[in-house]
Amino acid sequence: MSSSMAPDFLTELLHARSPSGYEAEAQAVFDRHVKGHADLYEKDSMGNRIATLNPKGDPTVMLAGHMDELGLMIIFVNNDGFLYFDTIGGHDLSVISGRRVVIQTANGPVLGVTGKRAVHLMEDEDRKKVPKKHEMWIDIGAKSKAEALKRVAIGDVATYDHELQMLGGSLATARAFDNKVGAYVVGETLVRLAKEKKLAAKVVSVATAQEEIGVRGATTSAYAIHPHLAVAVDVGHATDHPDCDNRKYGETKLGGGPILCRGANINPEIFSRLQKAAEKLKIPYQVEADPRPTGTDARAIQMVRGGVATGLVSIPLRYMHTPSEVVDLKDVERCVQLLNVGKSTLFNAVTRTRKAQAANYPFCTIEPNVGMVTVPDSRLDWLAKMSGSEKILPASIELVDIAGLVKGASQGEGLGNQFLTHIREVDAIIQVVRCFEDADIHHVTGTVDPLRDIETIVTELVLADLGSVTKRLEKPGKAAKQGDATAKAELALLARLKQHLDKGVPALTLEMNDDEKKLLKGFFLLTSKPT
Question: Number of structural domains, the chain?
Fold first, then answer.
């Protein structure tokens, strides 16, 4: 069966053999696919791979997915050449026997078969028992202890010989989806984010080591990175198969989308933001409740230093910790987070913050986002250097980001009057319109037409100004009634502005003398501002 539906990066991780503490093959795959996209790439003594984008960004966001898997370790060879083992990680002992395994040795891979006493040779009571580890062995075809030790060594490790295969549709099986999919997701996320040149945050994707024996790699890497927030990516139990009581284990299924965890291990705000992001991008998701510390990297990361705001995203998986785990590859892809685009992304980039929520129109907020941008000036730097100034105060620009305008905004459609109020006193307006198709990003009209959208924005601003000018003309102030020269000039200019706006053109295009331009500023008209 073909595995062509799976990305090459994921396929190579699944083929790599990487029991906890022996992750070299998986490390090499992660290096090959991620290193070239990172601004900074590090390898630590625990075996973690740490890839960073925008090292000087703020805040620091850590993404963690472990690359280690279950394994068997050779601890004894008997006189007949049979190998006895201990387990690396939490195996289901009932499914170990009768499996082909590959032993990693100094001289290359050695094929073996796990064995135990055949059912025909057991007493009735023995048939009801799960075999203990010392009652099973690995057969490599050796005739003696000496022959076996020429091929393997005490401390060599083995993994099941079950590689990636497709089952049907987008369902796939492999021995180590736990947690090669998590390492893939955090690595692929960084690869895609590397194409986005407007990051404000420092993003650190970590393929962690030794999770299966005590979340060890996550503990040390999180301490070194010291993130402001983190998201661990792992697998979670799919409960959509027979003999699984949803009353005990909740309800999650393959193909239902990523699992978002709630519980003591999870920061409520991180959970909420992940949930809103999934809803915003119309990604199906499921919720898992776990009242205890989770058995994932999230458990370790949350407890580092003074504590880290941590979230957990899991890929639904059947038959965890067995030689043939099953996932839906669509769920894996859904876990790779994509950046949304739009004017809030521009705002975040220019102000170097993540204050603005980049949301589809139905989810956007009425409240404005405000950010300050310092204006680079090499002359100022030179003067500061010459004078030895201890503090530099560069010129700055305040940017205000509001939700998008819709047709009828000037009459209050889409809460338009509340949106327009936020920009009446600004000095300039930046219009950001959409010029691309994306099924995940909703357009309020249902179609993408940037020229139409620009016309809509201009029309609504003109109509809003026309309403403002008309009200001023209908209720002239006392000064105008008493013949005040300035007040009379204002009324004359308002009359000209009304005629001009009636034509559907911005106030800024009206020919005015210097005195009239000064009067215009006091009207706070939206179309009097450079755009």
Answer: 3
Gap between the Cα atoms of 193 and 203, Å rounded: 9
| Predicted local confidence at residue 419, as pLDDT | 56
- Which residues, listed in sequence order, are joined to residue 64 by a DSSP beta bridge? 206, 232
- Tokens read off for 174: 């492999």
Distance CA 459, CA 409 (A): 10
Residue 418 to residue 404: CA distance in whole angstroms: 12
- Catalytic-role residue among 211, 288, 325, 490: 211
Question: Does residue 423 sit in the same domain as residue 325?
Answer: no
Task: Tell me, yes or no, whether 284 lies in a domain.
Answer: yes
Tell me which amino acid residue 262 is.
R
Residue 281 has what pLDDT?
79
CA dihedral angle for residue 479, residue 482, residue 487, residue 492, rounded to 10 degrees: 140
pTM of the model: 0.65
Q: Are 99 and 93 in contact (CB under 8 A)?
A: no
Spatial CB neighbours of 100, under 8 Å, sequence gap ≥ 6:
111, 112, 113, 160, 161, 162
Whether 211 is a known active-site residue: answer yes
169 inside domain: no
- Residue 142's domain is classified under what CATH number? 2.40.30.40
Give the three-state DSSP class for 205.
strand
* C-alpha dihedral (374, 380, 384, 385), degrees to nearest 10: 110
Could you give the CA distance from residue 232 to residue 230 in angstroms, rounded to a whole number? 7
pLDDT, tens digit (0-9, with 9 covering 90-100), for 247-256: 999 999 999 9
Question: Does residue 196 share a domain with residue 314?
Answer: yes
Contacts of 35 (CB under 8 A, 6+ apart): 41, 51
Q: What are phi and psi of 64, to 5 degrees?
A: -130, 130
Claim to verify: residue 401 and residue 516 sit in the same structural domain: yes
Could you list the residue range(s) of the whole structural domain that residue 132 is in? 71-160
Q: What percent of the chain has pLDDT over 70?
A: 80
Structure tokens at 194: 């590397």
